[in-house]
Amino acid sequence: MSAANTVKKILIADDEPDILEIIQYNLQNEGYEVVTAKNGNDAIDLAKKHQPNLIILDIMMPGKNGIEVCNILRLQPVFNDTLIIFLTALSDEGSEVKGLETGADDFLTKPISPKVLVSKVNALFRRVNKEDKGLLQIGDLKIDREKYMINYQGNDIILARKEFELLALLAGKPGKVFLRNEILNQVWGTEVIVGDRTIDVHIRKIRQKLNMDCITTVKGVGYKFQI
Amino acid sequence: MSAANTVKKILIADDEPDILEIIQYNLQNEGYEVVTAKNGNDAIDLAKKHQPNLIILDIMMPGKNGIEVCNILRLQPVFNDTLIIFLTALSDEGSEVKGLETGADDFLTKPISPKVLVSKVNALFRRVNKEDKGLLQIGDLKIDREKYMINYQGNDIILARKEFELLALLAGKPGKVFLRNEILNQVWGTEVIVGDRTIDVHIRKIRQKLNMDCITTVKGVGYKFQI
DNA sequence: GCGCCCCTTAACAATTTGATAATACAAAAT
DNA sequence: ATTTTGTATTATCAAATTGTTAAGGGGCGC
User: Fold this and answer.
1) Could you tell me which of A160, B216, B76 has the C-alpha nearest to residue A168?
2) What whole-number distance in Å separates Cα of residue A176 and Cα of residue A174?
3) Among A222, B52, B160, B170, which residue has the fewest nearby CB atoms (within 10 Å)?
């Protein structure tokens, strides 16, 4: 569950360069941002770094295999909402079932048809995105993601872009603690590097403009939205 | 919480009685409520009548085929959140893509493995109900890893980061004795080195804040969580 | 160019946290 | 009974983290 308007990020992990390339090419063509990993350990590192929305994992990989990677990632709350699809060389029923039970969202058997892959990816995102509509309402607070407008107790409130995106992110999952890392990735993106105090300042401005204590600090962890 | 605890209803539409029966049997075994339809028109009627959570549609059916049924249902807002899976006799790439673009959530090719089918169904529902993730409940104690919250007998309790992680670790496997070493590795990491009394102090703070004796000391070994 | 607003950063204040030392206590071993 | 080993408790302090304010660069419309 990421911001609706941002480009979806996909991590692909496979030890066969050809497959990696084919998938990457097709998904990029479709408008996705793609990161690739050559083995399980790289996949874990890159997942932590980029926080992708979807991870496509080959089951058979040197180092850690796909199922192990999935298990490791699923243990971390940060990856709760990350979609995971497995790839397998043969129709290996045992692995399929095991993979799905590990917490994967779907399964593809090689040889892969690029069209089917792209369709599946689109279908998964379509389903997930149904939940975050453009209009969010929590108590007296209305957030219109499309119109970029905030309304609190009937009064329109003007927020700057970063402020808006930050609030929209937090309010999208009330109660959930967003790590500073997560916030940076979602609002600022992975390439931009900003100082430590930047988030604080924006949080402060939001608190000031809304004039209420809807954002709680969880020291050493992050921030959460709560009415 | 609403839909999560209720029994999921599944509608299956296929013109082959054998397949219908196999699928029905396996899904019922898994605890799902199953309704069956023999053709496309029946499927639409039954969908309206029962409002299933998931519809499994054979593509090749007399009357209306699966894709037509899907199109018709997707036009109605009532079925916005209904999951749809297609079945197809052969790996027919064209139909697959068309089906997924029509708004299906997944795709299965015959011959169907009951285990894979059940796994896929479970995986889909798991994704949709992502509510029960990261939530731990032992007796009166609720630990929400995502929200970073502890609730004991209805009262929210604020724990600092280390305290929270320590409690979450122990409570993750009630009854298991965690060696001091294990705790250090999990909560503090392998690089950090802290004194011997550090754990004790944190344990004490947890006991104090929860105001109950849920953590038992196993002298010379470690600690365990137990209500 | 000028003014305005957004974003970032620096600098400092305020706060919280986590580690340790010191002491007290309890149980097992001698 | 005494020593030893291991844990509980408390207070204290340094480090980590966040809050706050102000200031400056850069973009944008006028």
Assistant:
1) A160
2) 6
3) B160
Q: Which two tokens stand for residue A75?
A: 């243990």
Which of B93, B115, B126 lies closest to A115 in CB terms?
A: B93
Asked if the model's pLDDT at residue A4 lies above 50, the reply is no
B104–A123 CB contact, under 8 Å: yes
Asked if A215 reaches chain B (Cβ–Cβ under 8 Å), the answer is: no
Cα separation, A28 vs A10, whole angstroms = 9
Q: Give the per-residue pLDDT at A3.
A: 40
> What is the rounded CA–CA span in Å between residue A108 and residue A27?
15
Q: Residue B225 in contact with residue B217, Cβ under 8 Å?
A: no
pLDDT top residue among B95 and B6: B6
Q: Which residue has the higher pLDDT, A167 or B212?
A: A167
Tell me whether residues B100 and A119 touch, CB distance under 8 A: yes
Average pLDDT over residues B159-178: 96
Q: From CA B191, how far away is CA A212, in angstroms rounded?
A: 41
Q: Chain B: residue nearest A75 by CA?
A: B134
